[in-house]
Structure formats: C-alpha cells, structure tokens
Amino acid sequence: MTAEKVKADTAEEARKAAEETRQISTSALNVAQTNYSEAQSIVDTLISESEWMRNHGVAALDQAVAALTDVARVVGHRSGYLECAQHVEEACISISGLTTVP
Questions:
Q1: Distances in Å between the alpha carbon of 94 and those of 55, 65, 79, 91?
Q2: Tally of CB atoms within 10 A around 58
Q3: 58, 99 contact by CB (below 8 A)
Q4: How far apart are CA 41 and CA 10, in angstroms?
C-alpha cells in the first residue's frame, strides 16, 4: 500500500508541476503576443511616417519646423524650437540619409 501511495503522490506532484508549467508557458506566450503587437504597431507607425516623408519630403517638415520657430520667436521660446529643428534634421539624416532643403 505504501508503494501505491508514493506512486499516487508522485503522479499528483507531476500533474501539478505540469499544470504550473502550462500556466507559466501560457502567461509567457501572452506576454510575447502583447509585445509583438506593440512592436508591430510601432513598425506600422514608422512605415507610415516614412511613406509620408517619401511623399512630402523633408521640405514639408522644414516648413513645419520653420512655422513653429516663427511662433516660438513671438512667444520667446526660440532656442527650444531651434533645438527641436536640429534634432529633427539629425534624425532625418541619420535614419534615411535625407538632407534638408536650404
């Protein structure tokens, strides 16, 4: 009887361990799927933005930054928007090799 009890206890422990492993695997899969969805959303946004850049070019972006700079001058925040423009230009150059229109 003792051997049967040990066998039954061992089988129950194995069943519990398998169930716990399945729950952990399911949880890890859910996290991976969520992370994939978030990454895909970011990629979709980047694709959309790069298509916009291809269609409108950096000149349109420069015009937007110039308009912000003009407004910033009026309200006294010129340096902040100039810094923003510089970052945008650097990002455009480093990401896609684009240059701004003079």
A1: 19, 18, 22, 5
A2: 18
A3: yes
A4: 46
CA distance 33 to 3: 44
67-93 pLDDT, tens per residue? 777 777 676 665 666 677 777 777 777
Q: What angle do CA 63, 85, 98 make, to 5 degrees?
A: 75
pTM above the 0.70 mark?
A: no
Instruction: Supply 7's token pair.
Output: 């066998």
**Contact of 61 with 96, CB cutoff 8 Å:** no
Rg of the chain over all Cα atoms, to the nearest angstrom: 29
